[in-house]
C-alpha cells in the first residue's frame, strides 16, 4: 500500500481561515502541482509553523493525503520571501498577480510542475533581490507563463500571413502582430517599441527591457494583460491593483 505521506518544495499562494484555529493553505509545489491542505492550529500563538505558511514563503512541506483536503504535518522554511514582499505595495501586488495566474492556470489543467514552479521561484527572488521594477518582473513572468501554456504570441512577423515585421497592430485572437493587409476589427495599435519590449522580457534581456521608454513598458503591460484575459476568458483581478505609475502611457486603441 502506497504511503499517504508526501514531501515537496512549495510556494504558499494564499491562505483561508478555517474554524477558530486552522487554515486552508493553497501551495504550488515542484512535483505535485497545486496542493490544498489544512494546517491545523496555525492561528494559535503556540503554533510551531504558523509564520512559515504565510503567502509567498518558499517551504519544504510534508503533507498527509486526505479525501478532499490534505493535511500539513511538517513545514520548514526554505526562503522567507513573505516579509520583504508583504511590506512593499509594488512587490505585494506583483506577487499576488503571479499567484493568481498560477492558480488560474492549474485550474485550467495546465501543470508542467517543475519548470513553471522554478520560474515562479525565480520571479519571487527577483522581486526581492534584483532591484528591478516589480511591475517589469511581473510582466516577464506573465509573458513567459503565457508562452509556457502554449499561447506564445508572435511578436516579429505577421501572425496571419507571415509577412516580416515590424508591424503596427496586434490581434489577440490571431495570436500576435498583424500586417496592414491582415489587420481587422478587434486588433489594437501596438508600436514596434512595445512588441520589442515584450521580446526582451521573453528573452530575459534586462538591459534592453529596462532601457525601453516607460510609456512603451506600460503599454506592453496592458497588452500582456489583454492576452491573458483572452485565453483565460476573464481578467486577473490582482492586475487591477498593480501600480504602473505612468500617467502618460497611451491606451490600447482598437480599429474603428
UniProtKB/TrEMBL annotation:
InterPro entries in alphabetical order: ARFGAP/RecO, DNA_rep/recomb_RecO_N, NA-bd_OB-fold, RecO, RecO_C
Question: Which keywords accompany this UniProt record?
Answer: DNA damage, DNA recombination, DNA repair
Q: Which Pfam families match?
A: RecO_C, RecO_N
Is Heme one of the keywords?
no
Residue limits of the DNA replication/recombination mediator RecO N-terminal domain?
5-80
Record's superkingdom?
Bacteria
Which parts pass through the membrane? Answer: none
Q: Does the keyword DNA repair apply?
A: yes
**Function recorded in the entry:** Involved in DNA repair and RecF pathway recombination.
The Swiss-Prot or TrEMBL record describes its family as follows: Belongs to the RecO family.
Q: What is this protein called?
A: DNA repair protein RecO
Organism whose genome encodes this protein: Dermabacter jinjuensis
Amino acid at each position: 500500500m502506497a504511503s499517504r505521506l508526501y514531501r515537496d518544495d512549495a510556494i504558499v499562494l494564499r491562505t483561508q481561515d478555517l474554524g477558530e484555529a486552522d487554515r486552508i493553505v493553497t501551495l504550488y509545489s515542484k512535483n505535485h502541482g497545486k496542493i490544498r491542505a489544512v494546517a491545523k492550529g496555525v492561528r494559535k500563538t503556540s503554533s510551531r509553523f504558523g509564520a512559515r505558511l504565510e503567502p509567498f514563503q518558499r517551504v519544504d512541506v510534508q503533507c498527509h493525503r486526505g479525501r478532499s483536503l490534505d493535511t500539513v504535518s511538517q513545514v520548514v522554511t526554505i526562503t522567507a520571501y513573505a516579509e520583504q514582499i508583504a511590506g512593499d505595495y509594488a512587490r505585494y501586488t506583483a506577487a499576488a498577480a503571479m499567484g493568481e495566474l498560477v492558480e488560474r492556470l492549474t485550474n485550467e489543467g495546465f501543470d508542467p510542475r517543475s519548470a513553471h514552479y522554478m520560474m515562479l521561484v525565480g520571479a519571487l527572488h527577483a522581486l526581492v533581490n534584483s532591484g528591478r521594477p516589480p511591475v517589469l518582473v511581473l510582466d516577464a513572468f506573465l509573458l513567459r507563463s503565457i508562452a509556457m501554456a502554449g499561447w506564445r504570441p508572435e511578436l516579429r512577423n505577421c501572425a496571419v500571413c507571415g509577412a516580416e515585421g515590424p508591424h503596427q497592430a496586434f490581434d489577440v485572437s490571431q495570436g500576435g502582430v498583424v500586417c496592414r493587409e491582415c489587420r481587422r476589427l478587434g486588433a489594437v495599435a501596438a508600436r514596434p517599441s512595445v512588441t520589442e519590449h515584450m521580446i526582451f522580457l521573453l528573452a530575459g534581456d534586462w538591459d534592453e527591457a529596462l532601457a525601453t521608454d516607460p510609456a512603451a513598458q506600460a503599454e506592453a503591460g496592458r497588452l500582456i494583460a489583454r492576452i491573458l484575459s483572452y485565453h483565460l476568458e476573464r481578467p486577473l483581478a490582482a492586475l487591477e491593483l498593480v501600480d504602473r505609475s505612468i500617467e502618460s502611457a497611451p491606451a490600447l486603441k482598437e480599429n474603428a
